[in-house]
Amino acid sequence: MKNTRKLLLALFVTIFLMGCTNDWLDINNDPNSPTTPELSQLLSGSEYFMTQGLGQGNFIGDNLSSYVHYTVSRDVQNYGMSTQANNPFNTWNYLYTYTLQDFDAIINFAEPAGNMIYAGIAKTLKAYVFSVMVDLWGDIPYSEFNIPGLIAPNPDSSKDIYNALIALLEEGKSNLQDTEAANLIKPETDDFFYSGDVDKWSRLNNTIKLKLLLQSRKAKSDISDWQNKLNALIADNKFIVTGEDFQFWFNEKTNPTDMRHPAFVNGYAGQHTFFINPYFYEIMKGETYNVIDNPFAGINDPRVPYYFYNQLNGGDSENAHEYRNGDFMSIFFAANGPNSAHSGDESYTKIGIYAAGGRYDDGKGGAVSLDSGTGAAPHKMITYGALKFMLAELALTGETSSDARALLTEALTASIAHVNTVAEAAKKPDDEVPLITDEDRDTFIEAVLAKYDAADADGKMEIVMTQKWIANFMNPVDAYTDYRRTGFPKLFDPQKTQDPGYGVNPTVADRSPAQVPITNIASYPRSLYYPTNAETELNKNMTQKTNLSTPFVFWDK
Asked: Which of 12, 264, 384, 409 is the most buried (most CB within 10 A)?
């Protein structure tokens, strides 16, 4: 497997002409060959690899989804990501070895030539990627990163990196606003996000800066001039607007490279390896079988058939099952019961059309394959709806004077609109996929707001953060950070279930134990191990963590 990954890396590097090595950047004596890299090729390649490194497939998104209870994976049951786990290694390797070095190459070659738009975009993306890596791992190499000849860089403290990244964002924004540079070369189709639109990139730059300030609000004394920076951003109010979601759209192409959403390819191609967490499903359905303190009890979320596709339509599953709720079938987090390891490739519920370009659940059921959907769905990093949730949190905590309730309403409206946008774009030409109606949307939002109005301050925060968690499905990186910062959403607790406990089989013959055996839930990991085979065995200055229940990130208070 490791050799296969290396071969694929080499292939991708060749395809995208990545500028990551000293050899490639050396002066070439051939007069017919360029002596400097093509900025357009560097940008498109780095944006693509950034998305891969932070997304699903053989990367961090797969296993981290289990940490935030979107999915259940037998590979990392009960917070079991080890120092040898492939996904953290692959993400660390892609970001450090390819993406970030390319951003530096863009900056180093764009600035002397006056191509400041390229430089501003690269600085904005470099700040975003490093911030995510800090959020995942804490102290990592930053100031000594990418120094030629230095093979053992020292890690910087997470708070120092955050301060440096905020300064980098400010520098990048200044580059983007360089009116003289705007008349020179700037990205077009080589920019997968905004096609070189300077105003959109400036608004994203502000939005990323807001995200860093929000995430550090409990440690604001560690951030230089935190309050004035926040006040200036809020007063300026130039963040991404509707339709400017920071996301990478996968598509239907399979040749020469499969560009379908990796979660679709993995989930619809035979053996079932990732399962929808029943806890997540019950919260969206408004049920209380295993979520007796469900903050949305009695509210059926209209996004459910877009999030999940049930292959079953009555009748029995292939094998004895652990959890079945109508036609929804899955396994529990941390389960070790007799049915948790059974196969059920044509019975288990799949990820739906919104999350990965799969099937919309029309209630008819049917086993799926790679012909069942398009895989044309985006990997979300910061959506317009996520921005509104961020602003709602700041209002709730008294950091701004805005109306948190109104912002929650806007966040929910934007999140549902995003589902409709993706569903319309991801459906197959002959498929009938209805959109969520304004009436259904408004009924749902009114029900959520009624819960919000009745809640105390802590309950209001739970509602905002749990809805943000739902909206961020398939973006587990931010969900993982949000949970550690706020304690919400509350995670699955076997002690908070109703009889018969853990299992539910309301419409078919009981084929599970009355109570599914669950191991003792492990302590929650406050950060990830450093990849042993990528860092701690090669860098004498990096010491492996020994107790992940201890906070490693400065904002984790």
From this structure: 264
